[in-house]
Amino acid sequence: MSSIQHLFDNNQQWSDKIKQEDPNFFKNLSEQQTPEYLWIGCSDSRVPANELLGMQPGEVFVHRNIANQVIHTDLNCLSVIQFAVEVLKVKHVIVCGHYGCGGVIASLDDKSHGLIDNWLHHIKDVYRFHKERLDAVEDKEEKLKLLCELNVIEQVANVCNTTILKRAWAAEQDITVHGFVYNLHDGILKDLEVSVESN
Ligand code: CO
Description:
The protein contains nine helices and five strands, in the order ααβαβαβαααααββ. The chain is α/β, with parallel strands linked by helices.
């Protein structure tokens, strides 16, 4: 078995560094959680929510799954949204995809990947909704980029259509849903400008 001791060493150094900068950091953090943002992103290890936003622990409530999907029967994701909206009262829900997403790539081929095919089928649905537009793009890379963006846009619509957001907006809660896409090559976020702030 390979050693994981370095994880604990790293953790100790990280904790020491933060305490050096702010001796009360962990005390304050453990006493309250008041993030303004809910991040729904891809599980991809190259897309770390807090870091790429330049934010500290405590500032972003995070849900990640393969290809940043919001499925109406996914109790995990829905529970996260409910807690974020109703208890934490976040001001922004960010759905963030990324170019070169393995889940989106896998949804485009006709190979069998086992269990995950059921999950990826939702991206095939996104393709079907936008088939004409996607089929018109011949370049494979460009087609993939477009599907990554359209997937985010569809997931933004899915967030907006949850009973959670509908109820929050009906109660005039100040909350906006956004769609971003992240570029692995330069670490830059792009706003897809599909923000929704009311029903
Ligand atoms: Co991905």
